[in-house]
Amino acid sequence: MASSFPAFLLPLLVVVGMTLMMGHTTEALDLVVTNSDQGSDGGKRFDAEIGKSGAMEMLDSASKFVWDTFRQQSPADRKNVQKISLIVESMPDKPSIVAYTIGEEIHLKSESMAGTQGDIKTGIRGVLYHEVTHVWQWFGNGNAPSGLTEGIADYVRLTAGLVDPNWVKPGGGDRWDEGYAVTAYFLQYCESVSSGFVANMNAKLAGGWDVGFFKDLTGKSVDELWNDYKAKYASPA
After folding, report:
1. Signal sequence: where (predicted)?
2. Which end of the chain is less crowded, N or C, counting CB atoms within 10 A of the terminal residue's CB?
3. Cα dihedral 36→103→154→130 (10° resolution)
């Protein structure tokens, strides 16, 4: 369970931290949320509709969902992450980005919340599930295709039921490593071929990258899998 400090103890304009116990272990994950753009429309909306406690809950639940997806019930199986930081900030020079992650630090663009119609909670939860996946996933020692790692992050979002309505439909895309939703739906297909595929792929990426991992895990090459996947969604002649 998450624990929080009484409201009167919370600093108004500084980082607020929360310690969450991981299951039955003695390890703790520190979650830190900072709104560095509180005066903007997006920053005000973040505080009003999500808030720091709401964002911490999202980071916590996202981490637990990633562990389940990667079948990492033991802390020994996971990356050694002690703290996840979320920073809400203005990104006027990044018009096409909603959020990005560097190491264990997630940056969320305040402008994206200012320009969103209706409720923002579900959309931000989906974004954070994607970004939290980047914190915990392996990258093949920096050699895995970015399309694959981005696809794994969107696969987590997909399986959490947080699909963006603007995503490409299943079967879309031109390449298996196109990334994001295209690759996420392809990975969902691979999971149907071999249960635990995504968890096993992530585990393999802890030691490096080889396209042969697809055949190791399914008995088929990635090209064979992609062709089978596309054929599944091909329109009838």
Report:
1. 1-28
2. C
3. -30
Indicate the residue type of 211: V
**Token pair for residue 204?**
């393999």
pLDDT tens, position by position, 138-162: 999 999 999 999 999 999 999 999 9
| CA gap 78, 67 in Å, rounded | 8
Give the C-alpha distances (Å, rounded to integers) separating 200 from 119, 143, 188: 36, 17, 13
Candidates 4, 30, 146, 162; CA nearest to 84 is 30
pTM: 0.88
What is the number of residues in the chain?
Answer: 237
Q: Are 31 and 17 in contact (CB under 8 A)?
A: yes
Domain boundaries along the sequence of the chain? 1-136, 142-237
- How far apart are alpha carbons 52 and 60 in whole angstroms? 12
The pair of structure tokens assigned to 218 is 């399914």
**For residues 151 and 189, is the Cβ–Cβ distance under 8 A?**
no
Q: Which pLDDT belongs to residue 214? A: 99
Judge whether 97 and 91 are in contact, CB under 8 Å: yes
Token pair for residue 177? 């490593």
What does the pLDDT look like over 52-94, one tens digit per residue? 999 999 999 999 999 999 999 999 999 999 999 999 999 999 9
**Residue 30 contacts residue 97 (beta carbons within 8 Å):** no
Q: What number does CATH give the domain 1-136? A: 3.30.2010.30
Under a CB-based contact definition with an 8 Å cutoff, are residues 228 and 194 in contact? no
* Both tokens assigned to 108: 């969320």
